[in-house]
Amino acid sequence: MIGKKVKALLIDSETPLVKPAEEVAVVGVKNRLNHALLILTTDKYALVPVLDSDSKMRGLISMPTIMHAIMDIEDVHFEKLGDIEVKEVMDTDYPYVYDDFELEDVLGMLVNHAFITVVDKENVFKGIITRSEILKGTNRIAHEFEKIYDVKEKTINEEAISKETIKQ
Amino acid sequence: MIGKKVKALLIDSETPLVKPAEEVAVVGVKNRLNHALLILTTDKYALVPVLDSDSKMRGLISMPTIMHAIMDIEDVHFEKLGDIEVKEVMDTDYPYVYDDFELEDVLGMLVNHAFITVVDKENVFKGIITRSEILKGTNRIAHEFEKIYDVKEKTINEEAISKETIKQ
């Protein structure tokens, strides 16, 4: 459970937490790696979602994944970029949540992932939640929380609780 | 100013906030782009610091930067990767702080940058501060702050202050 007052500052009521699908660069499962490389070169993200023709989420593709796909122990075979389809090499073990997600889950996942994919129950891609958006909330909490609220240590078993929880 | 109690939970007293230089993949200013591409392919970061022979910080290099350097309007010239030095194309407008940094400054910079470089006063590279480390702190605050502390709205001018500060 996330504390209610912390949560209220972590999320900006005027800006949606999810960057909507139409604002996110994506590639198709049947695109070739040379096209994916072009998208990744022009896009600001280091990896992008891979969708099928029904806009359903299928995987993620990154530059390192593309490079690994065209490298062998001796050389990088750039001529293969036009032969390999994205679906052959994309990462299908990606982090995602449904569009009725709990903020708590997303917060935990973002420690290890640059962004979290949001899909509906039919797996249609709805957008992404980025670390940047949560870090804006962290800044609000850092600068404003103790200005807005009086914060006092709890008196009962306070020392025991704080030691236990901080260590987790 | 960051609230003291928020700050205490944001930073983990047992884990250093700065990932030390010896644990960060870097490339040299005189390395060729093919070497940088190899480092970026094996490293988990999408961009890496560029150092000179005195371990001083000179720039950042990313895969999109490398791709732009070998592309023209018609084609990608992979054969150029072995000819161009990193210092010719690296991004020299990178975010950094000195090793006596204020957390407040770092928090703000991380909204727009994947990591912040830490240097000493002689510009020697000391390490990086990542979004991941701050997001661990955000998780601690979200889950623990209101368990440890009693949080009450301030009574004097409370509504006026909270409206003003939240909007900033």
Q: What can be said about this structure in brief?
A:
Chain A has helices spanning 4-10, 33-42, 63-70, 86-89, 103-109, 131-148, 158-167; strands at residues 19-20, 27-28, 47-51, 57-62, 96-98, 115-119, 125-130, 149-153.
Topology readout:
The structure is a homodimer of 168-residue chains.
Chain A: H1 4-10, E1 19-20, E2 27-28, H2 33-42, E3 47-51, E4 57-62, H3 63-70, H4 86-89, E5 96-98, H5 103-109, E6 115-119, E7 125-130, H6 131-148, E8 149-153, H7 158-167
Parallel strand pairs in A: 2-3, 5-6
Antiparallel strand pairs in A: 1-7, 3-4, 6-7
**Count of DSSP H/I helices of chain A:** 7
The CATH class designation of chain A is Alpha Beta
Q: Which chain pair shows the most residues in contact?
A: A-B, 60 and 61 residues
In total, how many domains does the architecture of chain A comprise? 1
Strand content of chain A: 15-25%
Q: Could you tell me the number of beta strands of chain A?
A: 8
The helix/strand series of chain A, from N terminus to C terminus, equals HEEHEEHHEHEEHEH
End-to-end separation of chain A in angstroms reads: 15 Å
Which strand order do you get reading across the main beta sheet of chain A? 1-7-6-5
CATH fold label of chain A = CBS-domain
